[in-house]
Amino acid sequence: MKRRAAPVKRKAAVPDECLCYKIFMPIIESIPNVSEGRRRDVIERLAGAVRATPGARLLDQSSDPSHNRSVFTLAGDADSLEAAIVALFAVAVDAIDLRQHQGEHPRVGAVDVVPFVPIEGATMADCVALAKRVGAVVAERFHVPVYLYEEAASDPARRNLEDIRRGEFEALATKLASPGWTPDFGPTSPHPSAGASVIGARMPLIAYNINLNTDRLDVAKKIAAAIRHSSGGMRFVKAMGVKLEDRNLAQVSMNLTNYEKTPVFRVFEMVKREAERYGVAVLESEIVGLVPAAALMRSAEYYLQLQNFSDAQVLEKKLAD
Amino acid sequence: MKRRAAPVKRKAAVPDECLCYKIFMPIIESIPNVSEGRRRDVIERLAGAVRATPGARLLDQSSDPSHNRSVFTLAGDADSLEAAIVALFAVAVDAIDLRQHQGEHPRVGAVDVVPFVPIEGATMADCVALAKRVGAVVAERFHVPVYLYEEAASDPARRNLEDIRRGEFEALATKLASPGWTPDFGPTSPHPSAGASVIGARMPLIAYNINLNTDRLDVAKKIAAAIRHSSGGMRFVKAMGVKLEDRNLAQVSMNLTNYEKTPVFRVFEMVKREAERYGVAVLESEIVGLVPAAALMRSAEYYLQLQNFSDAQVLEKKLAD
C-alpha cells in the first residue's frame, strides 16, 4: 500500500492537479468580535474584508441585533490572519462610532476582542506571538490602544477579558490613565470613535446556552451564579442569566473555556439539577458558532457509558487519516 | 481565496508532490468477520494479507477471545478490495479449522461473513456487483460454498444473515443439501475445515455491545429478545445475549442496521430500562470497529437537548469543507 507523506507543517507549493480537499498547513483560528450587529451594509463590508484576504477563510459569522455585535470565525495561517484582521480593523475603525453605539453586550472597542486559537499544527506559542504582532500593527496603524489578554497577557491581573473591559468604552479614558492599565500597545488615550481593542490567545471555547422552561429571569441568574467559576462554580465556566424577550424564556448563557477539563455534559447536568430546585426543566440547549467535534464525542461517550472508545473509530476520521 | 477543485469521483493520477491526506477515489468499505480471535499469529497473518494488498487500507481491526472472532475494516476501490478479500481467504482457509473452533459467536465459516458497504462515490449497485464477483472467485479458488446476503441476496428468504447461519458450521452439510439452500456459488458440500462463507452488500451498521453489571446470562438474553426486531423490538436492531467468561459479565451484543432510523441512544435507553426490571445496571457499552460520526453526534444532541444544531457547526468539518 502506498504510504502517504506525513502532513507538512510549513506552507508548501500545492500543484494545481491536487484534487484533495483537506487543509494541510498549520491552522490558527481567530474569532474577532466587532461592535456592529444591526447595519447589514457594515457587516457585509467586514465579512468582505476577510474574504478578500488570500489565505484566510471565513468559516462562520453571526450577528446579534440586541447585542449590537457580530462574531466572525476565521481560519488560516498566521500571516493571512494578520492581514485579515488588519483589513477588518480598517473597515471597523472607518464605519463604527462607539459614541453612537448602544447594545446589550459589554464593549470597549469597535473591534472589541480578537482571540487567536491554535488548531491543526499550530501551538499556543504561535498564537501568542501572532497576538502580539497584530496588536502592535493595529495600534500603530489605527492609533487604537491595545490590551493583550489571556495567554498573551503581559500581566496576570490583565488576563481576564471582563476585568479589562470593565467600565466599557464610556470609562476608557479614565482606565487608560490609571496605574496598572497602561495599554500594551498604542496611545494612552482612547481612539475617539473606535475605543480600544483586546487581543490575545486562548484555547477554543464553546458558546453554549441553555434555555429553561420558564420566564423567570431570577432562576436563570441564580443558576448562572451557581455554575460559573467566579462565584463558586466549575472552573472553566463563565455564565450569566439573560431573558429572551421574543420567546419569553430565561436563558443561562455560557462560555465554556476549556471543554476538555470542564466538559459540556457536566455543565448540562449541573444546570439541569439546579433548575429542578426551582421546579424548572431544561427546555433545550444551543451551541452558538463552531464547536470542536471532540466536545460532542465526549458527551456521547458519557451518556452511552462508552468504554475504550477512541476517536480513531470514527469512520470519517479514519478515512481522512 | 483560492477555490478548491470539487472532489473527483474517478481514480485520478496523484502527483508524488501531493501532500494532502484525504482519499478522493470512490470508496467501498468491507468488514470481513473471521473465525479467529485467540491466536495472535493467525490474526497478524490475516491483517498482513490486507496490508500487503496495494490500494486496500486496513482502517481497523478488533479481536474478541470470548467470541473467538476478529473483525477487520478495509476501505478502497473495488478491485483492491477484491484482491484483499481473496488474500484474506487464503490465510483463513489455510490457518483456521472450524472442527477445532469454539467461541461465543455463531459462525458458519472460517471467513464467516464479508459485507461490502458504499462510502464516498460508490453505490449500492457497485457493492452488489463486487459481492457477486468476490463470491464467485473465492468459491472457485478455495472450494468454499458461498451464500449471497442482504442487498446481494438472490432470494428474499436468504437476505438475513441469521437465517443463513442458523445451524452454524456443525449443521452445514444438512443445510447445503436441503431445498432452498443451494449455495449461490461453489460446492453443495461444506469445505471440511473452512465451512461456508456469506458475502453481500449493505448499508453501514454499528456493532454495539452493552455490558450489564451482572453475570446472569438469562438477563442479557431476555433483554436481547425484547430489543431486537425479530422478536418484537425495534426495527433496525439485531441482538443476542452472550456471556463474557473472562470478565464474568452478561452482554447484550447488537448490530444496529440503520442508525439513522433506529439510533444508538434510543437503543441504549431501552436496554437500560429493561435491565432495571431485573435489578441490573448498565456497566458500560462499546462500539466494535468503526462508527459514522453522525451516530455519536445525534446521541450528543439527544442527551444535551441541542436545538437547531447543524453538522456545519463542527469545527473540523468546517475546516475540511
What would you note in describing this structure?
- The structure is a homodimer of 321-residue chains.
- Chain A has 321 residues and is α+β, with helices and mostly antiparallel strands.
- In chain A, 31% of the residues lie in helices and 22% in strands.
- Chain A is built from nine helices and eleven strands.
- In chain A, the strands form two sheets. In chain A, strands 1, 2, 3, 4, 5, 6 and 7 form a seven-stranded mixed β-sheet that branches. A four-stranded antiparallel β-sheet of chain A has the order 9-10-8-11.
- In chain A, a hairpin with a 4-residue loop joins β9 (237-244) and β10 (249-256).
- Chain A is globular and about 55 Å long.
- The first copy, chain A, starts with 27 loop residues before the first strand and ends with a helix.
- In chain A, 46% of the residues are buried.
Low-confidence runs of chain A? 1-24
Order of secondary-structure elements of chain A: EEHEEHEHEHHEEHEEHEHH
Q: What is the alpha-carbon Rg of chain A in Å?
A: 21 Å
Largest interface: A-B, 70 and 70 residues
Strand content of chain A: 15-25%
**Which shape of chain A, going by the Cα principal axes?**
globular
Largest sheet of chain A: 7 strands, mixed
Oligomerization state: homodimer
Distance between the termini of chain A: 14 Å
Please count the helical segments of chain A. 9
Number of strands of chain A: 11
Mean pLDDT of chain A: 90
